[in-house]
Amino acid sequence: MSVTAQRFSKRSAAIFAVVLAVAQAIWIAPADAREETVASPSGEIVVSISDEGGRAAYSVTFRGEPVIAPSRLGLLFKDRHGFDRDLRLTNATPSNHDDTWEQPWGERRLVRDRHNELLATFAAENGPAREMSVRFRVFDDGVGFRYEVGKQKALKGAVDITNELTEFGVGDQATAWWIPSGEFNRYEYVYHETPAGDVQDAHTPITFRQPSGVHLSIHEAALVDYSGMSLQSLRPGNFKASLSPWSDGVLVKTKTPFKTPWRTIQISPDAKGLLNSSLILNLNAPNTLGDVSWFEPGKYVGIWWAMHIRDRSWGRDGIHGATTEETKRYMDFAAEHGFNGVLVEGWNIGWDGDWFNNGALFSFTESYPDFDLDALGAYGAEKGANLIGHHETSGDVSNYEAQLSDALDLYERVGVRLIKSGYVADAGQIERIDDQGIKRYEWHDGQFMVRHHLHVVKEAAKRKIAINPHEPVKDTGLRRTYPNWVSREGARGMEFNAWGSPPNPPSHEAVLAFTRMLAGPMDFTPGIFDLEPNKRPPLREDMQRSDPSNRPQTTLAKQLALYVVLYSPIQMAADLPENYEKRMDAFQFIKDVPADWEESVALNGEVGDFVTFARKERGGEDWYLGALTNEDARTLDIPLDFLDGGKTYVAEIYRDGKDADWKHNPYAISIYKREVTSAETLRLPLASSGGAAIRFTPAE
User: Fold this and answer.
1) 259 CB-contact burial (10 Å; exposed 0-12 / middle 13-18 / buried 19+)
2) Is the pLDDT of residue 208 over 90?
3) Is the CB of residue 176 less than 8 Å from the CB of residue 207?
4) Residues near 621 by beta carbon (within 8 Å), at least 6 away in sequence
5) How many CB atoms lie within 10 A of CB 442?
């Protein structure tokens, strides 16, 4: 070959290489990633959505600080192609919204819903043609997003979700307050405070504090016909949505089109900002029940605490609590002091013997012989202290559902307008009989129970009955859509102070305010005035009380503060009538404090340390304040600028007395009045695990 030919050959090879490289760049290299953003109305929160690397992902910044690192999105299905890889962001449709809506009852009457929205659509580039949309709503107090999958050939009809790929990249430098998920006692655990990197599996709401002081709470809204979400640690500080499965292992059974619940991230520069958020409510659909004025928020007493401290029992063993005579005594007390309800547990057949393990024995229409349901319904109506019904299922849901219509009809006939239900069973031990008659075991927060609770709420609404479930599925704001779903448990309540091992610690309520209470109202059952109930001798020689160290680890003033700090439209005065009669001066605050509010404002607080709320009564001019602390005594300076300007108020103050201390001097309380205005700052000294409760009334 000549030198000229050799040069030509090398030149041709070089040209070919350039052409090949260009062709590869044009036709073979992946397309550039697409990114879209949507900001909150204030501009402080920015969400970015992208398809980088063929994966759907999002990230969140607050005031320029990353608070959620790039985190994955997606869904996988059984026997169907899902949305995990080879995805392309094909469309992003923005919109915005701003209106104000009214709650029939609640912590505030008017709620503003102001957000910007982006509907992001992802298309799969491999396999059958299919699309998945993710709708983001960005408020000034946080972010909500959900998956929306429409009808399409590749996902036609019934689909089983086997994995939700949603991630939350919080980072391992944050501090977390959390309770474990997947454990036997459901949501009823003392909260852990650990680095985020130490969290394994956690229920939501879970609260984080970043090193900068920014606070986040991850939860969900509008949990309808889906499985409840907890968080599973993938890597330290990086979490994945974990859904409670059916007994056959499927996570969610649905069909197209479908929408998932909203995944929520509440964001605030400080702890108290989380308490003033309405994001969860705003992500739920409006009221579907229409006029619900038949439900009246209020306070109640009940034959309940006596059972936990073993003065009475649920069954017929000689100290049965639910008798006609005892119920009338409670109704008389309630009527005398302005309470509108009396809860009675243990009234129906099924409590004798091992009720925990045999829920099939419960009848929801048959009373014990010593309990006259018809007579007590009439007596309560006459007194204005209506009977509050109780349905304990012991987790045998099939038995309950078989009797539900008859049970609700019975309560409607005798005038019961509120039901406390119970699902006492270890997590994963909800009993369901399937179509073949085989017993299956489901989770309390699985899709089966999500469907069950909503079924009960809807059936109760037809009869103008409100529902308050214990051992429930967690609250996700559905009280907006179904306002007869008025409260629920879903955390360690007061009963743990009667027999818990250990009882709730002094920091418990100061943690609940920033965690569980972000989900919605809780039937905590406050107001214990005998703070060492297990020190009393038993009523009979053959009985034994719990360990004397099991007791409310609070002062008396803190028990009063709970009525303002821990919100519920039904508040129980949980102690025995005779214990209130011994301390009528302190009991006056419980008589006065409302259970329905025009406005609520968190004034200060740090998770697990202390918190202060101010709330204005609905339909009146009075304000109420509650402040409480953990085991550390502290003094809080409270600006009173929430009061109306230009007015003088009489402040009726109930606070820890001199030398008060939850361990050694819990009853020391100082009760006095003074005049104040909105221009003042009120100094409140709080004892160890102490509190303060104040009523502000405009001066005549």
Assistant:
1) middle
2) yes
3) yes
4) 644, 697, 698
5) 21
What band does 22 get if pLDDT is binned at 50, 70 and 90?
very low
Its sign, for the CA torsion 34, 40, 42, 46, is negative
Phi/psi of residue 670, each to 5°?
Answer: -110, 120
Return the axis-axis angle of helices 373-383 and 324-337, rounded to nearest 10°. 10
Residues 6+ apart with CB under 8 A from 279: 139, 141, 142, 144, 221, 264, 266
- 276-307, pLDDT tens digit by residue? 999 999 999 999 999 999 999 999 999 999 99
Instruction: Identify the DSSP state of 317.
Output: S
Q: How is residue 180 written in tokens?
A: 């474990």
pLDDT for 342-373, tens place per residue? 999 999 999 998 999 999 999 999 999 999 99
Query: Rounded to an integer, what distance in angstroms lies between the CA atom of residue 450 and that of residue 629?
Result: 35
Number of C-beta neighbours around residue 314 at 10 A? 21
Confidence (pLDDT) at 604: 98
* Alpha-carbon span 586 to 530, nearest angstrom: 12
Per-residue model confidence as pLDDT tens digits over 507-543: 999 999 999 999 999 999 999 999 999 998 887 777 7
Q: In which band, very low, low, confident or very high, does the pLDDT at 700 lie, cut at 50, 70 and 90?
A: confident
Helices (H) and strands (E) in the chain, counts: 13, 38
Per-residue model confidence as pLDDT tens digits over 226-280: 999 999 999 999 999 999 999 999 999 999 999 999 999 999 999 999 999 999 9
Distance (Å, whole) CA 621 – CA 624? 10
d(CA 155, CA 128): 9
Strand partners, 259: 148
CA 170 – CA 236 distance, rounded (Å): 9
Using DSSP, state whether 260 is helix, strand or coil: coil
Instruction: For 363-383, give the secondary structure using H, E and C.
Output: CCCCECCCCCHHHHHHHHHHH
Report which of 76, 89, 37 is spatially closest to residue 60, judged by C-alpha positions. 37
The mean pLDDT value of the chain amounts to 95
Query: Contact 554/496 with Cβ under 8 angstroms?
Result: no
pLDDT at position 533 is 95
Residues designated as active site: 495
**Residue among 307, 328, 302 at smallest CA distance from 317:** 307
Q: What CA–CA distance (Å, rounded) separates 53 from 697? A: 62
In this predicted structure, the answer to whether residue 591 has a pLDDT above a threshold of 80 is: yes
- With tokens 């009527």, the residue in question is 335
Letter string b/e over residues 381-417, b meaning 16 or more CB atoms within 10 A of that residue's CB: eebebbbbbbbbbbbbbbbbbebbeebbebbeebbbb
As a whole number, mean pLDDT of residues 22-37 equals 59
Alpha carbon distance 379, 374 (integer Å) = 9
- What is the rounded CA–CA span in Å between residue 567 and residue 560? 13
The answer on pLDDT for 24 being more than 90 is no
Backbone angles phi, psi at 146, to 5 degrees: -145, 160
